[in-house]
Request: fold
Amino acid sequence: MYLAYQSVHAPMQVPRKYFDMYPLVQNEKRRSLLGMVTALDDGIAKVVGVLKENRLWENTLLIFSSDNGAPVIWKHQGSNWPLLGMKQQLFEGGTRAVGFIHGNILAKTGYTYNGLVNIVDWYPTLVNIAGGKVTDPEIDGINVWPALSTGSPSPRKEMVYNIIPEWGVAAMRIGNFKLIKGKGPNDACWIPPPEAEGMLGNPSCISQKKDDVYLFHIKDDPSERNNLALKMPDIVKRLRQRLEEKSAKAVPAFQKSERTKKSLPENFGGVWSHGWC
Reply:
């Protein structure tokens, strides 16, 4: 079963009972956001409850996964602190997402996995868990189940964050080094949650240009505060070459008007469908 929640996402709306759970939060948009997260938690709890009632829980592997960091522009009041950036940006705040796995087929439980995993890895991983095998050599995903289930090192050694030609921005990671070139739609910022501003520090941003190059050692500097590009030109060159190799194989993205037309509700029984995003 695949269940995709619209929450937490704009528009910032939540039933009153969830809004009222956070009376100490003064910012109403932030308060709505926190209520939306709690409503999401309750929704997942209901799913788990039904699985247990029908004696399916012991035969269920539950995977909770997000697709991007929070939007932190002021109308959403999200926060990726202490990471840099937000949704639509290739800094860690826009791309690093939390998740968890629960099930009795895990060989190791109760631990935090710190290996490199990309969201595209779920496809071959889930097929493998179900007893199948993905043989297409052109897919980007890797079966990471042996690593996730035992806590062993990840087979993934590199990762493309994204390649966005229309914005002129792209990012690549090899090992612990991450390269970002170009500028996204907004300046990247470190933004504490509103209720913690002052205690954690005030928002600060970096002023980006379209020809900027950033190199970070993500293990030592996950908040991306120390740009190593000028100090390590050989590493920059290596990652740029690999990124160019990947860019040459990239499938062109749909144009917005084209994908919107493909997903129109009249084509799918009255609901928006695949192709809109």
